[in-house]
Amino acid sequence: MSRPVILCVDDERIILSSLKSQLMNNLGDTYQIELAESGEEALEILEELTESRTEVPLVIADQIMGGMYGDELLARIKTLLPNTHGIMLTGQATAESVGEAVNKASLFRYISKPWDEEDLVLTIKTGLRSYYDQKELRRQACYQSIIHKVLQLVITNVSFEEQLSQALSAILSTGCFSVSAKGSIYTVDLEQADLEWSTKDPDLVMISQVNQGEAPESNVSDGEVGQDVTLITSSPSVRYYRAPITLQGKSVGILYIYIDETHDETPQVKAFLSSVCHTLAGMIRISQYNRALEKHSLNLEQLVEKRTHELHQALRKQEQLNDIFLDVNKKLNYFATTDELTKLMNRRCFFERADAEASRARRYGRKALLAILDVDFFKEVNDKFGHQVGDTVLEKVAHVIVETIREHDVIGRIGGEEFALLMPETDVDEGKEICERVRLAISSNTVVVGDHCISISVSMGLSEVKDEESTISGAMIRADQALYDSKHKGRNLISYN
Ligand SMILES: [Mg+2]
Predict the structure, then answer these.
(1) Are residues 212 and 258 part of one domain?
(2) Are 20 and 114 in the same domain?
(3) Does one domain contain both 196 and 232?
(4) Any idea where the Response regulatory domain is (predicted)?
(5) What is the CATH number for 378?
(6) Which of 52, 182, 253, 271 could be stapled to 211 by a disulfide with Cβ–Cβ 3.0 to 4.6 Å?
(7) Would you call 83 helix, strand, or coil by DSSP?
(8) Which residue in 32, 110, 42 sits closest to 76, CA to CA?
């Protein structure tokens, strides 16, 4: 890298020679001393130096020269190289020209001819220190601004990859690394990484790069990242910073920044890169948390979906069980209320229904009649033809009764061959008429069983449910007595009591 230049401009060669000799003696180890005999030549030299990116901290210019005057030259240099300091050298400078130079060219000092060497060197050294102090201040301000910019990226609503890409561009924009601005960022693969990495040296993948600034092949994932920012020179033309990105002592990434030969390594650059990597580590951590959160949410959704599915299945099962339960209840209710042989109400059910009718009749002052029917000579049927035929006879009798009575009459089988009939809203005459129809219907039918034709008849006892009675128990007793009368009188009869 070429040394920085102090440019001396004077139209008198002897003065230039004297300046050069004194500067070489005092500053020749660090600086190149360039000479120009006119303002125009000075500008040409500066143009060449700028092209070769050689730094020019200081220009010493004579005021009175043929062609361009010193104050004008310094003013023009100010526009070309705003940070370069200017010192005016003059034997007969007017206050006006010094003032011009101060105002337009930010003149650092002026020195009167003839000068004292010690004074000259001191002034120049002060100027150089001021130049480098200001340069360092600018660099610090730039670093601060870049770190701030990278920090701001953390809260921007862009993807992690985009955040890193913008961060890398910002870092390279400091201009202190290389004109070609080249670099890359490698991080752990967040798709695969857990919040706590189990392996010490995770595989790194390139997330972002600028100007093909990828890492030298052997340098990624070699497990020897270390904790410090390192300047590596792998060949004269390839130099780069390798800055580890670490979280709690574990490597989660590497930042590569390529530099050219004009770059001067300073502790401040390393400190800056170290700060940047600290911020990048924070970005990686936040991104990890976000991804873990997304993954967790997804798992939670899947779990909720699974549980919902299980719940629906359980509900369906419950519905099936409910249907079975209802069916069983229905059957239980049927068997609890129905006479299995005749399908009429059984005794208990008949009494419940008949009592309810009696109660209603009493409440509304209506009439109700109760009849008891008994199959005549049923024991003989059983004895003669067997119980199976007896059952068939009972079924037939039940069928005929149901066919003959009215829809709202209540009929039940209350004993072996005994039936009871409650007729609501019915007076005695109507009741007798219905009973007569039943008696006739049964006696006019015969039951055919195999070769046998069995003639059947019933005896009946009829009684009214009295106005004050809210159950049929009284009527049952009276009807039973009337039935006894019918049996006694010869059967196939209806008696009223
Ligand atoms: Mg002169």
Answers:
(1) yes
(2) yes
(3) yes
(4) 5-128
(5) 3.30.70.270
(6) 182
(7) coil
(8) 42
| Ligand 1: centre distance to CA 61 (Å) | 9
Distance CA 352, CA 497 (A): 23
Low-confidence winner among 76-80, 100-104, 323-327, 334-338 (lowest mean pLDDT)? 100-104
How far apart are the CA of 49 and the centre of ligand 1, in A?
A: 24
Residue 97, in any domain of the structure: yes
CA of 109 to the centre of ligand 1 (A): 17
Q: Verify that 78 and 195 share a domain, yes or no.
A: no
Question: How many whole angstroms separate alpha carbon 345 and alpha carbon 339?
Answer: 6
**For residue 236, how far is its CA from the centre of ligand 1 (angstroms)?**
44
Mean pLDDT, range 203-212, rounded to an integer: 77
351-387, pLDDT tens digit by residue? 999 999 999 999 999 999 999 999 999 999 999 989 9
- The residues with which 109 forms a beta bridge, in sequence order, are 87
Q: In angstroms, what is the span from residue 122 Cα to ligand 1's centroid?
A: 22
- Residue 419 to residues 35, 349, 482, Cα–Cα distance (Å): 144, 13, 14
**C-alpha 84 – ligand 1 centre gap (Å):** 22
Sequence-distant (6+) residues with CB within 8 A of 488 are none
CATH at 121 = 3.40.50.2300
Distance 9 CA to ligand 1 centre (A): 9
Question: How close is the Cα of 17 to the center of ligand 1, in Å?
Answer: 14
Domain around 289: 156-293
In the chain, the number of structural domains is 3
pLDDT at 127 over 70: yes
pLDDT, average across residues 182-203: 68
Instruction: Let me know whether 264 and 381 are in one domain.
Output: no
One domain, residues 63 and 108: yes
Is there a single domain that holds both residue 376 and residue 454? yes
